[in-house]
């Protein structure tokens, strides 16, 4: 009775070990989580670049980011390519961030130029006229 | 034990050393450092710079096949940090200029307003000057009218004085001629008065014989005195106007006087005889002497 119980405990131990082993074997699940986070971050980066009018000021980079994101998403769906997902997503996010930064720089530069032009025009006008 | 510790320290010291030895990593670190070295940009794009630093740190630790990927990411992150810092800097400068532009716009509109005020003031002054000029011209015209009236009055009175003087002179002249005539003829001239048509001598009914056109002795004397008067006045002509009564037409009395004057030597051309209506006792013939 006792011995049979002990045998049962042994099998229980073996079962627990098997479960633990199987959990260890599912490390790709953790990798999948990391990949999903990277893809989501890349997606966000692309969205932010889109909102910053990168389509207008850095279209090549934004397109590269979009296709990189698609490749990352496709890789995430494919078990054999899953390991490439974080790298692909990081690259896409970097492309999107650069596109956004360039777009911001172009916008700010245009504004700066416009303000400079208006100021020099105003200064010319005010400088030419005799003060009251 | 000691040797182990020394080896660990050596490894720690070697860590940054080998990272610095990789030229690409050193270049990226240098780029990040120059971003931070600029005091104007040190607080700009801090998040992007942090990401770049992390990427460079990852690159420094990565070996083998994954290193190319890490190098690409680190390079890109550094570029992102640089670009973001430039964008931030440009945005701040644009903001600053926007304030300057607003100040200038305010100044410009202030000047516009001042200019508009000046223009309005100028127009107002101009209108005032024009109104004053018009008033001045009106006063001048009034003064001129008054002056002309004064001048006309003066001229009129001058002319009146001249006329009066002339008349007085003529009367004086007539007076002298009268005295001369009375001395020459020895007879007395009939009374005369000056009227608009000339000096008028009136012969009464006693100058003629009653009921006839024949001169009486008194009439003959008067006519000879008149003849002398006319001869003393060679520039004068005489119109003889005869007034008749029931028996005698005025024309015949006038003719009688004219004939007597011609007989006394007055040229007939200077004489003109006409008949008028009925006379009275005081007026049978009028002789009007006028300067030709």
Give a brief rundown of this model.
The complex is a heterodimer of chains A (132) and B (292). By secondary structure, chain A is mostly helical. Chain A is built from five helices and no strands.
Tell me about this structure.
- The complex is a heterodimer of chains A (132) and B (292).
- Chain A is mainly α and 132 residues long.
- Chain A has one domain (2-103).
- Chain A has five helices and no strands.
- In chain A, helix 2 (27-51) runs parallel beside helix 5 (85-128).
- The longest helix of chain A is centred in the last third of the chain and has 44 residues, at 85-128.
- The termini of chain A are far apart.
- The relative contact order of chain A is 0.11.
- The mean pLDDT of chain A is 82.
- With 292 residues, chain B is of the alpha+beta class.
- Chain B has two domains: 1-145, no CATH class; 172-291, 2-Layer Sandwich (60s Ribosomal Protein L30, Chain: A).
- Chain B is 69% helix and 12% strand.
- Chain B has a five-stranded mixed β-sheet with strand order 1-2-5-3-4, covered by helices on one side.
- In chain B, strand 3 (236-244), helix 6 and strand 4 (271-278) form a beta-alpha-beta unit.
- In chain B, helix 2 (23-37) runs antiparallel to helix 3 (46-61) and helix 5 packs across helix 6.
- The radius of gyration of chain B is 69 Å and the shape is rod-shaped.
- The termini of chain B are far apart.
- Mean pLDDT of chain B is 84; it is low at 1-20.
């Amino acid at each position: 009775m006792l011995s049979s119980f002990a045998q049962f405990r042994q099998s229980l131990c073996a079962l627990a070990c098997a479960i633990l082993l199987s959990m260890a074997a599912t490390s790709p699940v953790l990798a999948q989580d990391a990949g999903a986070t990277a893809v989501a971050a890349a997606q966000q980066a692309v969205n932010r670049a889109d909102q910053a009018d990168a389509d207008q000021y850095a279209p090549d980079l934004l397109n590269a980011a979009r296709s990189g994101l698609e490749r990352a998403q496709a890789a995430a769906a494919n078990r054999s390519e899953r390991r490439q997902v974080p790298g692909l997503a990081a690259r896409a996010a970097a492309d999107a961030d650069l596109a956004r930064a360039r777009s911001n720089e172009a916008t700010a530069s245009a504004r700066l130029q416009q303000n400079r032009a208006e100021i020099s025009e105003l200064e010319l006008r005010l400088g030419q006229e005799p003060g009251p | 034990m000691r040797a182990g510790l020394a080896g660990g320290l050596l490894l720690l010291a070697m860590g940054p050393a080998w990272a610095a030895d990789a030229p690409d990593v050193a270049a990226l670190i240098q780029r990040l450092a120059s971003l931070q070295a600029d005091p104007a940009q040190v607080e700009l794009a801090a998040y992007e710079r942090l990401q770049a630093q992390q990427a460079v740190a990852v690159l420094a630790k990565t070996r083998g096949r994954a290193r190319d990927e890490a190098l690409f990411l680190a390079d890109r992150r550094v570029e992102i940090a640089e670009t973001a810092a430039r964008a931030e800097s440009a945005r701040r400068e644009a903001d600053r200029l926007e304030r300057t532009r607003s100040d200038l716009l305010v100044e410009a509109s202030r000047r516009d307003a001042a200019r508009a005020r000046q223009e309005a003031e100028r127009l107002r002054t101009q209108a005032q000057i024009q109104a004053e000029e018009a008033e001045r011209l009106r006063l001048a015209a009034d003064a001129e009218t008054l002056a002309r009236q004064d001048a006309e009055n003066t001229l009129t009175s001058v002319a009146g004085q001249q006329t009066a003087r002339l008349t007085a002179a003529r009367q004086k002249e007539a007076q002298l001629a009268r005295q001369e005539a009375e001395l020459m003829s020895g007879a007395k001239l009939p009374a005369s008065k000056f009227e608009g048509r000339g000096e008028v001598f009136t012969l009464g009914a006693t100058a003629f014989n009653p009921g006839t056109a024949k001169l009486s002795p008194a009439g003959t004397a008067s006519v000879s005195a008149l003849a002398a008067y006319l001869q003393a006045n060679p520039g004068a002509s005489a119109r003889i106007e005869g007034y008749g009564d029931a028996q005698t037409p005025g024309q015949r009395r006038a003719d009688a006087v004219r004939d007597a004057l011609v007989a006394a030597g007055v040229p007939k051309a200077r004489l003109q005889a006409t008949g008028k209506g009925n006379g009275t006792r005081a007026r049978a013939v009028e002789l009007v002497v006028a300067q030709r």
